[in-house]
Structures are given as C-alpha cells and as structure tokens.
Amino acid sequence: MWRTILIYGAVLAAGVLGLQWLEYRMLVQMHPMGMYVAIIAVAFMALGAWLALKLRRRPLPEPFEFNRRAQETLGLSERELEVLALIAAGQSNKEIARRLEVSPNTVKTHIGNLFEKLDVQRRTEAVLRARELGLIQ
Questions:
Q1: Each residue's pLDDT tens digit, 21-68
Q2: Residue 36 DSSP label
Q3: Where in the chain is the domain with CATH 1.10.10.10?
Q4: Does domain 68-133 fall into CATH 1.10.10.10?
Q5: 65 to each of 21, 59, 87, 103, how far by Cα in Å?
C-alpha cells in the first residue's frame, strides 16, 4: 500500500517538475530581457543583504567602569552624581527635584556646584565632561 502511494507521489512530483521546467523555458523565450534583469536584481539584493549584515556588526562596547578617583579629585558628593546622571538622562530641574524628593532650589544648588567643580557653563558641557572623566555612562 505505502509503496504504491510513494510511486504515485514520485510520478506526480516528476510530472509537476517537468511542467514547471517547460513553463520556465517558455517564459525565458518570451521575455529573455526580463529574466536577465530579474536575475541581476536578485543577485544585487543578495549582495546588499550580505553587505548590510557585514557592516552592521559592531564591536561590543566595553563595560562602563566608574572613575572613583575622578569623583574624589573633584570632590563630588553622591547626591551631585545622582543629579548629574539625571541631567544626562535629559531631566529638567523640576523633574529632578520630584525624583529626588527635594526642592527645585536644592537641585539648582547641586547643579551650580557641579558646574563649578567640572569647570563648565552649560548642562551639555557638564554631561560631556562627566563622560570624558568616566563619571557617567
């Protein structure tokens, strides 16, 4: 029983393969330029996908190591580091105050101390300087 089914299946598969081959030959004869363009397009698409995968691979970033020495040298407190991290996250003074449960004036004082200790004038400069020193990620 199974042998008969397998024989009929193989014959039908061979027949379908033959018909597909004939259809392909007819298609190539009727539209040869279109077939060449399609083959070239598929080749370039495969090349582009391969190149994208190759270029996308980036080296793994090194793990962040906090620079405790820079913190001690600058005299930064733990609270000032918290404020600095929140500034780097894009938080406003009010948002930082709410998050740390202090008044906005206290946050302004911490930011002023940070600016003085890091020798900067703006928040973005403070973040860049802190990243250079290894104080924040």
A1: 888 888 777 877 877 888 899 999 999 999 988 888 777 778 888 888
A2: H
A3: 68-133
A4: yes
A5: 63, 18, 19, 31
